[in-house]
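[job 0412] stage=fold_complex status=start
inputs:
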Amino acid sequence: MYYAGVDIGSTAAKTALFENDKLIDAFVVPTGWSSIETANTIKEKIISKGIKEEEMKVVATGYGRVSVPYAHKTITEITCHGKGAAYLTGEDCTVIDIGGQDTKVITVENGMIVDFLMNDKCSAGTGRFLEIMANTLGVDIDTLCDLAETGGDISISSMCTVFAESEVISLIGRGEKKEDIAYAIVDSIISKVASLCNKHSEGTNYYLTGGLCECDYIVRSLSEKLKSPVKTNPMARYAGAIGAGVLAQKIK
Amino acid sequence: MNNLPKAFDDFSEARRNSFIKVKDYKDEGEHIVGIFCTFTPIEVIYAAGAHPISLCGMSDETIPDAERDLPKNLCPLIKSSYGFALTDKCPFTYFSDIIVGETTCDGKKKMYEYLNQIKPMHVMQLPQATDREHALSVWKNEIIILKERLEEEFNVKITDDDLKKAIKKCNEERIALKELYSLSKICPPPITGMELHTVLHGASFTFDKDEQNKKIMDMVEQLKEEHANGVRKVEEDAPRILITGCPMGGVADKLIPIIESNGAVVVCYENCSGIKEKSRLVDETKDPVEAIAEKYLNVGCSVMAPNDNRIELMSELIDEYKVDGVIDVILQACHTYNVETRRIKEFVTEEKDIPYMSIETDYSQADEGQLKTRVAAFIEML
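[job 0412] stage=fold_complex status=done
writing structure:
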């Protein structure tokens, strides 16, 4: 039997594919403007791997979870990220998921989600914030992180993404170095995420999931801010999909 | 015959039906007193021969009007209520002869200064804590001042006997409602959280309390009978939720369906329209003013600092109602409840050892998607 976890996020749609309890594949496609169309693209991709629809159980998650017509069940991304992180680490942890439109902190004990906190309805401290600021600087997110590594000394004080963007524009206008502005942008998001973590509770064994997991600089600055090591894994961007795939195995 | 659906409808229509009733009363020369809060000693209003009616705004319709005079980052209940008074869109506010408020939270007491320019207003000065001996005597004096004001306004004399009758009448309503909400102690409850809210909420907008008590007792009998006959509205294993926090009239239609459509059931409301005010009766054996003062001073609202009464009540309710998880509903910019979330979280998760979640929301639909995810994840966790 095959099990698929489909995580339709606001920016990227991730899929994790299991054969029984073994993770055999994971892939990502952009979400685009239509979640249903994206879900169908994912289904075609799975079928092209020689898996028949009737020999597969699907759990959909993410904000587009209701738009996956072939899903047997929908489960929230909070539960799935927790389960996925538990699958990847195999230990108790505090999951930090920096998503496209929200950031979550999830406490996992014995493979179960016991508590979580989500950011307010605001894009500060989310992936969207980085994306918009990277656009303003005319670079992609990876380059932004690389630039930030060699910068320093300035900070952005606006919490609101729209105001922060005008703050960045005035920094550009003032002739500040791109590296320093990039540093300020990353510092702003890391501070916001860390304050969410502190509000959540005393975290142990932090584990970063989501699209920023491969960005070393983000992981390092988050560790410094939290004064505690933050672990991650290149597969952590698929944590939601993996968690959904794990939960699909429970469908009778 | 099962007339439960109609009985529930009566309560959900209670507010609208009272719009007409309130006009009839006015035409007959009766007096209407607008109120906002569970601290208002409604016994004194009844004793003055007047009808109390809740003016708490529950819709975001009038918020833009209110923001002409009030800051944007203020609780939606305060803005909505003020907006309704400003625009004459609420018949209850419009027909109120006088409005009674209390110095509860900062937002409300400052708003009352402006409301006073629109309608005759009487503000009671509420002590900020219960632990000083003088708190009770201050509150007793305030009740006497209210009594004198109403006597003057309506040209009546309120006797101890009038007060005692009113106390009895209000206690009867509390007892009837308790019969109903206590049904949710049963596992699974014979009544859904939405139905329970409809009745509790509707009861703050009815005038004929004898008729209401009878309706409620009939409802209780029918629900018991249905349950005995094996009717199950709620799944046996549905996680049992206690809702606490701010008044939720303006967010109930958004929030309760999200909770209950995700497989959980609200079994207890420890908030303004719920058990918070109703659980304690006014002592019928004491001096009426003293008894009224004692009862209302001990309402476990977050405007009290410290607010140990809330913790005590919640502790009992969590045990009695076999609660699996607590959802603390915070209206945006409600500082007292929002600050208190930390204490409540610690109490619920550490002392009662069950999951807790706080939700900050307002009267708009803007956060519905995010609320769905949060609440669903919370229920998945239980």
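[job 0412] summary: The first helix of chain B runs from residue 4 to 12.
[job 0412] exit 0
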